[in-house]
Amino acid sequence: MILVTGATGEFGKHAVQQLMKKGVNVSDISILSRGMEKANNYKEDGITVKIGDYTNYDSLVKAFKGVDKLLFVSSSEIENRAEQHQNVVKAAKATGVKHIVYTSFMRKQERDNSAIAFLQDSHLKTEKWIIESGITYTFLQNATYLDMLPMFIGEQVLETGVIMQPAGNGKSSLVLRQELAEAAAVVLTSEGHENKAYPLVNNQAISYNEVAEIIAEISGKDITYQSPSSEEYQAALKNYGVPDEYIGLFTAFSIAQSNGELEMSDNSLEKLIGRKPTTAKDFLTKIYA
Ligand SMILES: NC(=O)c1ccc[n+]([C@@H]2O[C@H](COP(=O)([O-])OP(=O)(O)OC[C@H]3O[C@@H](n4cnc5c(N)ncnc54)[C@H](OP(=O)(O)O)[C@@H]3O)[C@@H](O)[C@H]2O)c1
């Protein structure tokens, strides 16, 4: 039995779809949800819905009974993520889960002074706890989702004609979330991924300058990229009424990009999905053409 957590979210949803597409019988798939009403579509498909919350260890122990492979989708609650993940790993150990496939985050090196250390910290801890548990693992060290690019550059970019990010000339190896979920399904349904960590990145990294050039080319509009200081950027976002939480997140990602932390070359994703990952240009063309 495979259990997919986070299946009410985007990544988990795609992963379940890919498992079904690969011929896994619905009777061999279960999902974890915080509420039954959120998972009605799965019930209709004949998939077993287990109710559980990362904050509630006992609910996880109940949900993980009889599970062989766990697709552990990392929590979206960054501040509480480490504690929540510790519950998941402990419950997996207590119930005899045989293989954990964990959605981690790409990293070039472990740096305490990284702008995104606050995001990386819980992933590093979780990987360590999983290794210490002795359970067979596969770590999917996912790049930043390409799907988030329109949000980073501003939904009104065609009207404003300006992309503003304090990322300098830094590049990011962005990947479509759907393709990362497809890779997870491949790992769950094939052999040879035991105790491996895969950096899942797009080999064609892209800078905001290049993003601006591509959108200008496909839309026929003038689009320019400006890289202000972090302080100027944050002041501008505050002026637009962007919530502080987002300002912090966007700035951190941009600084990491500017420092070269989000650019990596690795072909694990291509090998897993059996084709070249969708490029940022293909993705942008679909949106802005
Ligand atoms: N690589 C990247 O660029 C990137 C970007 C964003 C996020 N992420 C990470 O990747 C994960 C999956 O991405 P996504 O796009 O699928 O995120 P998403 O759509 O926000 O889905 C998050 C999933 O986690 C579940 N979840 C949150 N807190 C939980 C808890 N306490 N107990 C049990 N389940 C809980 C949510 O359940 P509910 O439906 O009940 O809320 C939802 O199913 C995120 O959670 C985050 O850790 C990566």
Describe this structure in words.
The protein has helices at 10-21, 40-45, 57-64, 81-95, 117-133, 149-153, 157-160, 177-189, 208-219, 230-239, 244-258, 268-273, 280-288, and strands spanning 2-4, 29-33, 48-51, 69-72, 99-105, 136-142, 162-164, 171-172, 196-200, 206-207, 224-226. By secondary structure, it is an alpha/beta fold. It folds into 2 domains: 2-142, Rossmann fold, CATH 3.40.50; 144-174 and 203-263 and 276-289, UDP-galactose 4-epimerase, domain 1. The longest helix has 17 residues, at 117-133. The chain binds NADP nicotinamide-adenine-dinucleotide phosphate. Residues 5-6, 8-12, 34, 38, 53-55, 73-77, 84, 103, 105, 142, 144-145, 148, 177 line the site of NADP nicotinamide-adenine-dinucleotide phosphate.
Ordered list of secondary-structure elements with their pairings:
Elements: E1 2-4, H1 10-21, E2 29-33, H2 40-45, E3 48-51, H3 57-64, E4 69-72, H4 81-95, E5 99-105, H5 117-133, E6 136-142, H6 149-153, H7 157-160, E7 162-164, E8 171-172, H8 177-189, E9 196-200, E10 206-207, H9 208-219, E11 224-226, H10 230-239, H11 244-258, H12 268-273, H13 280-288
Parallel strand pairs: 1-2, 1-4, 2-3, 4-5, 5-6, 6-9, 7-11
Antiparallel strand pairs: 8-10
The chain binds NADP nicotinamide-adenine-dinucleotide phosphate.
